[in-house]
Amino acid sequence: MNLSQPTVWPDYTMKFLLVEDNEELAHAISTRMQLDGHVIDHAINIADAIAYSEAGEYDLILLDIMLPDGDGRDFLSRHRDGQKDTPVIVLTARSQVSDRISMLDLGADDYVTKPFDHAELQARCRAVLRRRSGTSQTLIKLADVEFDPVAGHLSVAGSTIVLRNRELRLLELLINAPGNIFSKQKLFDRLFSYDDDVSENAIEVYIARLRKHLDKSRLNITTLRGLGYRLDEE
Amino acid sequence: MKSSEVQIAGSLRRRLAVTLIGGMTILTLLLFFVVRNYAAQIAQQSQDSILSASVTSILDAATMRDGEVQIDIPYASFSMLGTNTDDRVFYVIYQDGVALSGYEELSIPKASIDETSVLQSTTFMEVPVRQVTASRVLAGADFRTRITASIAQTQDNLSGTLARISRNAAIFGAGFFSLAVLLSILATSTTIGPLKRLADSIARRGPQDLSPVEKPVPSEMAPLVSSLNHLMHRLDKSMTQSEDFIAEAAHRVRTPIATVRSHAEMTLQRVDKEENRQALRSMIRAIDETSRAAGQLLDHAMIAFRAHQLEFEAVDLVEISREIVLRMTPIAEMKDIELQLSGESSVIVSGDSILIQNAVRNLVDNAFKYSPADSNIEIEVQSRPSPYLKVVDYGPGFLQAEIETLTDRFTRGVNAEGTIGSGLGLTIARDVAAAHNGKLVIENHHSGGACVILYL
Known about the structure:
Number of strands of chain B: 14
Oligomer: heterodimer
Largest interface: A-B, 43 and 50 residues
Helix content of chain A: 25-40%
Distance between the termini of chain A: 26 Å
CATH architecture of the largest domain in chain A: 3-Layer(aba) Sandwich
Number of domains of chain A: 2
């Protein structure tokens, strides 16, 4: 598996704290987050979570509600009382009707209901970070292109365009690991949810759109027959 | 809120009032007749004693002289019978069965053979009279004769007296009766009062207030209140358990599903063979369907549970829609769908905010599922003619024939093929509408997409 190293673009590296007692789920989330180029610390209970959050600065906290040593909401209110404004996304398995309000009241920025699509979690993280965009600098610079994946802005040769969501996610993948080859399948899995009834060829539409946006830049998306796509610098 | 049907078997207040007032009526009538009869008796007695005295004075005046009976009727004998009304007096005197003087037509009772007076009420010349008859034996040396005198008097004065007494007794009885009725009403309301206060204090409670009744009650009501408290305690416990159970069930079901889903997703990242990928995709789809169904079932249970104890408050439909749009936007962006909110800036309805939120979320969720990529979902909130929220999408819409049956539990449209959903979304929205006396209207937008309107 090709894990892109976030050290290449330290500005863009996001630090996540995941508080989740279910090891398997935590492993799955961590792996996906690392694939997206983020750094993630994993706490398995509230005590751990407090230790982690006091020791380091995080861009975002993913918080499970039912934890072995207490209720995640307690951590949330403690966290907010401690004047920390790190955004928090709650991972809940409880009924949507009863619990959602109290979580938002307690200062969670958003929540996802288990089981969730990883793409949804990613989208929610992005939305939360965008709302808080004053606090984190997320500009990626490559060749003559500036890309803000949180705001979805792409600046090429002095003009800025706003990318649509799938274009944004596609560019994010490619720009995160230039020179690496992404298979059509891999890109498809990351861009479409499982209930989208489209063929893997749909990815070509988005590649074409990105190519058009990058037309005036020194970046090229190269098609490698039978292998996939690669972002190259001229 | 629906008022529950109660089988009515009479009214305690009425029963008590009827018993008390009925008793009082009988007592009053009894009193009236006793007083009147007693008074009549006394009046009769006084007439009788005057008549007796009159008869006695006539008999006393009878003397024997030269073997002849002489009766010199004293003036007083008749004057004592004078009344303020024109009562007529008739008399007759017999000697050994032969009329000596007076009205021979005035018959005398055969029994009057000794000296005791015989009193009787009879009619004479078609007028009711009171008649007193007495006799006396005059005896000489060789001689023995029986003198019988009878005086009858009409009863005009007596009936006048009786009418007066009756009137007075009736007035007295009526006064007594009114007082008794007043007391009955007072007694009834003091007795019913605590019961009514208990009912009021329970009726005034909020739907969530299941605390025991703590105000002191009369000892007769203690068993009722104690079983009521007991019942409320059990209800409270079972409701808390139900709510906890629903939340807990969701947790128990969703967490393992989430794990399985993550595994499947991870595996999909590593697998290259197309048929394996297809299998994994349909597996993930099935997992999503399972978890959605579980979630909606639990939501539906929660709604059915809450619908019986609605907490009405002022709810801003626009605010709710805005929150939901904000919440759904990240997922909408994934499909490049734009959620548009239009209409008034604030539409306040009275309702249960959690239920309404759930209904709106399900409607938007539905629209979202059937919308193609790069399309819009329009949400419109208006207060006229009645407050409504309309969700329009640009998906395939409903088949005309299905529109009627679509809100039935677990019914999904034919056009829903290949889309995740348990079919409960519209049912939930319809149930919420019904709980608020509103309705859910399902139709096709002229653009061909689905248009669902929630009237509240």
